[in-house]
Amino acid sequence: EVExxxxxxxxxxxEPGAQAQPQEPEAAEEEEEEEGDVAGxxxxxxxxxxxxxxxxxxxxxxxxxxxxxAGVAExxxxxxxxxxxxxxxxxxxxxxxxxFLQPAFDLFPGKDYxxxxxxxxxxxxxxxxxxxxxxxxxxxxxSDVLYVMHRYSLLRDFETxxxxxxxxxxxxxxxxxxxxxxxxxxxxxxxxxxxxLVKASCQGQIVGVCAVCPEVEVAELNAHFQLPAFSETLQYxxxxxxxxxxxxxxxxFAYQKKLFLGQVMRLVxxxxxxxxxxxxxxxxxxxxxxxxxxxxxxxxxxxHVLFVLNQRDLCREKDPxxxxxxxxxxxxxxxxxxxxxxxxxxxQFTNLTLVTSEGEGRADVASLASEHAFLSQVRLITSSxxxxxxxxxxxxxxxGTALSYDILVLTSGVKDQVAGFSPQEGDLPVVPAASxxxxxxxxxxxxxxxxxxxxxxxxxxxxCLAELDARGVEYTFAAPETSPTMRLVESVAKDLKxxxxxxxxxxxxxxxxxxxxKERALSLSFVNSDGTAAEAETDLLVLAHTQNVDPHIxxxxxxxxxxxxxxxxxxxxxxxxxxxxxxxGTLAKFSRLYGGxxxxxxxxxxxxxxxxxxxxxxxxxASGARPPAPIGGxxxxxxxxxxxxxxxxxxxxxxxxxxxxxxxxxxxxxxxPEGGVLLRTEHEGQLATLGIDANGVVSSVCFCGPKPSSLxxxxxxxxxxxxxxxxxxxxxxxLECLYTYLTGSWADAxxxxxxxxxxxxILAQGxxxxxxxxxxxxxxGVLELVKENVQDFPxxxxxxxGGY
Length: 804
Fold this sequence. Notes:
The protein is of the alpha/beta class.
């Protein structure tokens, strides 16, 4: 069912050779206000979508009255669009849905555009395969999703071929104002000279152009990014990259983008395309088909983030998921959740927003986007959330902006607070433990404080003591109590017999902070464990004690009646008492039905991925792709597997402690696993312990001593079977030094990102013993990996074969 009389003007008439940036999506958003909502969800046997007009609402009537005669004149103009009001088709005939479109356009020969709006939770019907999703403004999350289609999108003679010099003028005409960009023009000219400029044509007119640089150093990309070395079929992947340097398409044919890029690969003789995005380059309209590539651990700066498109990805179609997912807080958990949603193999999430406040440690939007490629596909807003309206599903920012959501995810973390004082308030020299090193570095050598007080029993206090000790700053250490993790550190130090050289915390409770005298910047008030009062003056106060939720977030939770019990309370699905609001990271804890465990005791990345899985499940239930959850049922408790741990310096001769174990993190001493053994060595002042459970799997690793140790490498070891360590448990127990053995060059492959990915693939697919050919394929692939990444395996010797 279509309607053309009420459709507002969307854009000027556009020909296939129009410029690359027409105005129809922006103007079409205005159409959304007139047309109303598309209501309805996909049923089991048919697709059924209906529009409901809301032009008669009080707000619209008031707006029309205010418009006066000018508004009447505006609406009296002939429109260039008609609207789809209802669509219904049985699923078995869904592939033929596009056959409706040409007759629909024939009904309105004077209209160039067809538009439709859907509610964010609705399943996108197959009819929309030729439509383009109109993107809204950053600070506006509209109540509906707008789809726009031009009648020329139905033309089928879409062709691609290499450009010749005779096409140059027509290419410049397609570029329009972009041809004045010197960088764009240089890329087009360079690709034309290398016979790597590809054009897309329709009815003899150029409607798209793609410039490719065919020379790409794969080794350089591998040095900075985690390019998967093995395919899902466990074949070693030999990349044949071309770099996409420019892509311009008439938006009428935007739905053909993936087809066009596939033809580009064929014509330039490449199996993969990469796209490098930096601050100086505008975000290209290709990121929805390219996949972001994470950076390698420990890799240096390279000045850009990387996106990749492989030939195998061209055959994979993702279903659009238009639910408005609003994540508050750029914590590790929140970022992992967003990344997992964007990497979902089945759904393309189109409305992801991250709100991060200035007070957060990782809140700088520019640095976040440069560090994480996937954030280029996310709306980034720097502000604080001051109100949550659960009834209307909106959050309000401190500048008054209102953001609508379908799913709200709270992962803002917690901050250091004590005695009603937050380090973000005032200008007193009070810093949280995590910011001490940066604070002292900003002061310079001549301006360092002469004395500091470190207050708190969290394990981060130990690292602060080491930082002050290294810079020659005198300090006092006070805490009313110590955390279990701190007691674990003290236990390891006692085992190494260096506990007597570590300063113990005075048992005192801080009760007041005031501006000090001329000699000292701060005057502090304490209460001793025996109840007596004490005073102290200092130049700097370092907080490593109580952490609590941001006051703005706490106010939102309190005003909206969301259960808060020291932390945001969630169930096994990480859902709060509001089914549309989720929580994770250090901000949240499980309800008492699940033991009341703090989520901060588990891996933030694993929690983020679990959050994404539950958000996806909720979106599927909203669209009818998954049956609704049972009413009143208790969500199962999540099972955590990823190891957790910490690594800190000790204030004693440059010592460092690194500890990793299975979750949760709560032990106060290193103990043998149940039914297993705890291997221990001490050599040249370096303590090393290795826990191996009854199944022969590494359950814990601890290094403490003057030699450096890597937290990420220790995390790799936990969960590996002891067979990966090259020796049986009995042989490991006879080693003189476990630390030297596990950090030797032979173990480089254990910590390689590519080998870890291969192991995950094998575990996911299984490797039957009789598949000797597949085993040989994997072995050959590993040899290829070592050969092409000699910088990671400098002391590995390859066996001689005909291929080397």
